[in-house]
Write a structure and sequence with these properties.
131 residues, mainly beta, three-stranded antiparallel sheet, 8 strands
Length: 131
């Protein structure tokens, strides 16, 4: 299940925040064509909490000790600083919404599976960071 070694997870770099003023959150969009079924990047983390969610197809989110298969409308909250990677199947679209802990009533402390209704997806896409 885990194709990365323990030392690769332990050395996971923290990427810079993608949230830009005056916004409280931002969403990145990645398609299967962007990754060609290989992981997006080696294990890494973000300084902000992240909602990883699937818009189309199948997206796999890998944590050190777990693998999540996301279908359209499914997502998982990942706490800030949590190492992860992802893989997108062909013809899929995965989205990653980043929210700073300062913008939340309480920080995201646990990995939690959630549903992301279509109306919420469209609102999150409107806040895209890779335009």
């Amino acid at each position: 299940m885990n194709s990365y070694r323990q030392d690769e997870w332990a050395a996971s770099p923290v990427q810079p925040s993608t949230i830009r003023e005056p916004y409280l959150m931002g969403t990145g969009v990645v398609t299967g064509e962007d990754t060609d079924t290989r992981p997006l990047a080696p294990p890494h983390a973000h300084p902000d909490a992240m909602l990883a969610w699937c818009y189309r197809g199948t997206v796999w989110v890998q944590l050190q000790d777990a693998m999540w298969r996301l279908a359209p409308g499914q997502g998982i909250w990942i706490p800030a600083g949590t190492p992860h990677t992802a893989r997108h199947e062909r013809d899929s679209t995965g989205c990653y919404t980043y929210i700073s802990d300062a913008s939340l009533l309480s920080p995201i402390d646990d990995i939690v599976q959630v549903l992301v209704p279509r109306a919420v997806q469209e609102m999150l896409l409107h806040l895209g960071v890779n335009r």
